Amino acid sequence: MDNGYTPHVAVKVDSKTQVPSEYVKNGEITLNVSPSAVHKLQMGNELIEFSARFAGVARQIAVPIANVYAIYARETGHGMTFDVDAAAKPATQAVAEAEPSAPREVPALPAPANTTPPQPGKPGGGKPKPQLRRVK
């Protein structure tokens, strides 16, 4: 928010997650949590709660913190990812497991329409911007 970007959270949906089921794809949902999109946002240690409109209908949303697997800026795709599976298990059990889980893909974001690619010799050096991806 401080840099003028729109914060989004990517959430693994399960029985403890209260979101509109018609917007869930492959057991996941991405939510815009900017102040202009939500009402009465409360972020605690265990739960993120707010009210938001989906197709003009107000809905109450409740997401367990342990189900949030990414926080990123819509405009750039830059952000942070989290290991949802390890967060839900006790630390000793997560370390003891030798079998790695498959990497999760964060939904691809469209490039902002009002930006131009960096030019060689100028800040950015002509290198493409990194995309948010899951790394184990």
Summarize the structure in words:
The chain is mostly beta strands. It has a single domain, classed as SspB-like (SH3 type barrels), CATH 2.30.30. Helix content is 7%, strand content 31%. It has 2 helices and 7 strands. The strands form 2 sheets. The protein has a 4-stranded antiparallel sheet with strand order 2-1-6-7, with no helix packed on it. A 3-stranded antiparallel sheet has the order 3-4-5, with no helix packed on it. A hairpin with a 3-residue loop joins strand 3 and strand 4. The protein is globular and about 30 Å long. The two termini are 28 Å apart. About 18% of the residues have low confidence.
Count of individual beta strands: 7
What order do the helices and strands follow? EEEEEEEHH
CATH superfamily: SspB-like
Overall outline: globular
Name the CATH architecture: Roll
Mean pLDDT: 77
Tell me, what is the CATH class? Mainly Beta
* CATH topology group: SH3 type barrels
For the structure shown, list the relevant keywords.
three-stranded antiparallel sheet, 2 helices, 31% strand, SH3 type barrels, globular, 136 residues, mainly beta, single chain
